[in-house]
Amino acid sequence: MSERKVLNKYYPPDFDPSKIPKLKLPKDRQYVVRLMAPFNMRCKTCGEYIYKGKKFNARKETVQNELYMGLPIFRFYIKCTRCLAEITFKTDPENTDYAMEHGATRNFQAEKLIEEEEKKIQREREEEELNNPMKVLENRTRDSKMEMEVLENLQELKELNQRQAQVDFESMLEQYKELEKRQKEKEQEEDERETKEMLERALVKRLRDSDSDSDQEEENREDQQKKHSAEKPTDILTADRSTDSTVTASTGAKRQKVESWERSVGGLGGKSALGSLVVRKKPSATNTAPQPAAGSQTGTGGAASLPAETCVTTTASSSSSSQTAPAPNGSSLSLLGAYSDSDDSNSE
Description:
With about 350 residues, the chain is of the alpha+beta class. The chain has helices at about 110-130, 135-165, 170-230, 240-265, 270-275, 290-300, 315-325, 330-340, 345, and strands at about 30-35, 40-45, 50, 55-70, 70-80, 85-90, 95-100, 105. The chain contains 9 helices and 8 strands. The strands form 2 sheets. Strands 1-4-5-6-7 form a 5-stranded antiparallel beta sheet, with no helix packed on it. It has a 3-stranded antiparallel beta sheet with strand order 3-2-8, with no helix packed on it. The longest helix is centred in the middle third of the chain and has 62 residues, at about 170-230. The chain is elongated. Mean pLDDT is about 75; it is low at about 285-330 and about 340-348.
């Protein structure tokens, strides 16, 4: 099989390139090329601006019967981007530029037009001088007069400048340096002033804070001094005695209340009062054994052992005995539980 990418072609031994027929193409045939607009232009039909560097698909052809030193001149056809009008321009190898031909006007061409006019005037003058020698003298005298006038004007301007302003560059530099020094000094003074103001403000704040703190400390000291002056130095030693006195006073008040109650009513837990009021139960023949237990109970309860047949004599003796006897710690309910009945119950 043959290769897909063929680089070397096969030429038979009887190949004759002269026998190949040549294509007969017209001389004014056109090619489609891609180019950019060589200058700024404006369309004549719609007024659209076409700027330099805009890309076009142009048709290119060689201009017939136009050569510049053996170089061919090419013409290009483009279309307006807005109205599709045809615009043509061609190369200008003489001026190394492009020349506008049809369909648009070139912009920013004033400088070029001035140069062209100057060149045209120069050519006409040279042609006149070649044919007329008197014209050459006239032109020379005119040029010399113009040069003298220009020199005189320059001299006058120089004199006027020297009269009005005698410029000394060294003095100007010195003045500029002095101005710079003054500005720097002013800036330094302003900076120092600002720093002083800031320091003064900070000091004022600190003084105010210290004054307020000192005032508070003085007030606290005065309060403490007042407290110390109100308290005596020996109060610390007498503080325990005062507490003991308060405790003893409270206990004494309680004792006075108890004594006043006993005087008015009488002690309920007294031995003599209960012994005179309550009669001991007579021992029976059947239960002789538990009787000593009862006696022991009464003994433990704090009741006195009285004879079996004794009775209450008088109320005055009981009241006198209750006043003289001290109140025991035992309760009255324990004494009443030891005795069951009085003389009335036994009689019944």
